[in-house]
Write a structure and sequence with these properties.
The structure is a homodimer of 348-residue chains.
Chain A (H helix, E strand, L loop, with lengths): L19 H24 L5 E6 L4 E9 L4 E13 L4 H4 L10 E12 L6 E11 L2 E11 L5 H16 L5 H12 L1 E2 L4 E2 L3 E8 L14 H8 L8 H13 L1 H12 L6 H21 L1 H8 L4 H4 L6 E3 L11 H9 L17
Antiparallel strand pairs in A: 1-2, 2-3, 3-4, 4-5, 5-6, 6-9, 7-8
Helix pairs in contact in A: 1-7, 3-7, 4-5
């Protein structure tokens, strides 16, 4: 281990505590358990099936899937803990200090595909890496509605912001814009949904934004802050724990207030069509998915994120002045959802 | 233009004729017309809708889609002719002589998604490039059945082989193995279907195989041949024209003999599930699709290849001793289909 450094241009800030791996693993497993319990209760019809698996190079995981439920057409919640001799080149490019060192990684991820087009799809992922002299946390959560309910997007973002604000007043703004940058389908010129928060390479140095867009809003906002004071492992661990605890209060109220709304073929067809964008994002852009598929990840666990039924339709465009058009015009573009105020109309 | 070279290690063999671009363009447009006419006649219910489009950087195309037909759930047939100042880096890596030169490219591609699970999905693409001192042809055709009819796979391959054999006795073997290499889903350890033929960078030099697998069967077979005599532009043009003419006789008889077979939910569900592999291949591996999406291709034309309705199902495995299992065990692995002989049973 090299000497400790505290400037933001290096990756090493403070040593993790001796029991760091176990503590994060327990957080991730506890998160999986707690979320699965709550989703089963909400669903009311189906329950999770678990597949425990091992990875030849080291480690393993437990994949849980709930299929054909009352609320969820499919819900997948994965926990994994893996180790090996070398991080893949795509990660080493961002963390050159890890080169030549073994690595440890643990995380929990989920994607929920509700049956009702009025309940949004949601994705969560929190993860932790150690590799030689470096360690970092990453993750986030983002919401993909099919129909435009501004109060849902506002509730989701406000809950995330409250969770972030409890740890640092600047976290939400940087990580919200980073999320808008990351979940973007360039070939459609659309966001995947209304976003949420996303962060990576949180290693205790003062640099919040470490994404690929030096001119993007997250970078601009992060740079404007200057460099934060270095943060300890404990501070960032507590932040990730806090974030993970906001998931259920951010999502469950939305699912509950939409699940009994009736819908017809039009809404179902639009949902199936929009699910195609989820597939396109995950297979074309999502680095975790692509990396997993091209190496030796467990394919069935990686592709649990794909929707159970999907439509593509050549050259579809929503009719003007419809809820579907409103989704495209307002909800698939970056918005400051925390500032939304209810008006006489349901939608903004 | 640099001096002509004829050894296989360079890319320049002979000059194309003065009217090369127009002749290939006419071949490609004629191919699109002829195939669309035949497919409409076969379908009997629906007809093609055409969208003509232009490309800002130069050129354009005509995209034709037949939807909700009698035989075809969706059929997409694209023609395009484009030019620009520079080929993308992914192609320049293979054709360094083209660097700093403008380029011209024209081609026709199609993907047919039949309604009946007993009719295979099929893909065709033929294309031609000129860029500074280099020119080359590429393309191929491959068949993706959902149910295992060995006589269909054998008919398809024999028709392609006859088309190849009319031009060179070694073409079929090299391009058949290259096709097996290319249409392979590493993360599933499956071929996309029963293959067909695939080739790229046919520039008149004597090297047939120019793929990425120096130890693969196509390379091994090609190397065993030594280097062929250099071929003229006219020879390769005639070969591509010949290949393109084998498409209808290779595919139509299969569609015709399967279209009236009745099927149920089981077969339909399996078809929708297997269509997911088509999506995975096109979005994760297909270089043309990925390149098109990441640059300024016409997204709706590129993604016309995706099926209209698709299922994913966590951890699906076919029951042993079923037609679905036979597809996995025999048809999704490389086979010498031209050697198949009918036995008392329909399937091998």
């Amino acid at each position: 281990m090299t000497a400790l450094k505290t400037d933001a241009t290096t990756n090493v800030n403070s040593l993790p505590p001796a029991e760091s791996r176990d503590r994060v693993k327990q957080l991730m497993q506890h998160l999986q358990d707690k979320i699965c319990d709550a989703l089963e209760e909400l669903d009311g019809v189906s329950s999770f099936r678990e597949d425990a698996w091992e990875r030849e190079e080291g480690g393993g995981g437990r994949s849980r899937v709930l299929s054909e439920g009352g609320v969820f057409e499919q819900a997948g919640v994965n926990f994994s803990e893996v180790w090996g001799e070398q991080l893949p080149p795509s990660i080493l490019a961002q963390r050159p200090e890890a080169k030549g060192h073994g690595f440890f990684a643990t995380g929990t991820s989920l994607v929920l595909h509700p049956r009702s087009p009025y309940i949004p799809t949601v994705h969560l992922n929190y993860r932790y890496f150690e590799a030689g002299p470096v360690w970092w946390f990453g993750g986030g959560v983002d919401l993909t509605p099919y129909y435009p309910f501004a109060e849902d997007a506002a509730h989701f973002h406000r809950t995330l912001k409250a969770g972030c604000d409890a740890h640092h007043p600047e976290y939400y703004s940087v990580f919200k814009h980073w999320c808008d940058e990351y979940f973007y389908l360039k070939h459609r010129q659309e966001m995947r949904g209304v976003g949420g928060i996303f962060f990576d390479y949180q290693d205790g140095t003062g640099a919040l934004y470490r994404g690929p867009h030096p001119d993007g809003p997250a970078a601009a906002y992060s740079n404007k802050l200057g460099v934060l004071e270095p943060r300890s492992w404990e501070e960032i661990f507590a932040f990730v724990q806090g974030c993970s605890e906001t998931f259920l209060p951010a999502y469950l109220p939305i699912a509950k207030r939409r699940r009994d709304m009736s819908y017809g073929d039009r809404e179902r067809n639009f949902q199936l069509y929009r699910r195609g964008r989820y597939v396109e994002f995950n297979l074309v852009y999502d680095r975790g998915t692509i990396f997993g598929l091209q190496t030796n990840g467990r394919t069935e666990s990686i592709l649990m994120s794909l929707p159970p039924l999907v439509r593509w339709q050549y050259s579809y465009h929503p009719e003007p002045n419809t809820p579907e058009a409103e989704l495209y015009e307002i909800f698939l573009k970056p918005q400051e959802w925390v500032k939304w105020k209810p008006s006489t109309s349901e939608n903004i």
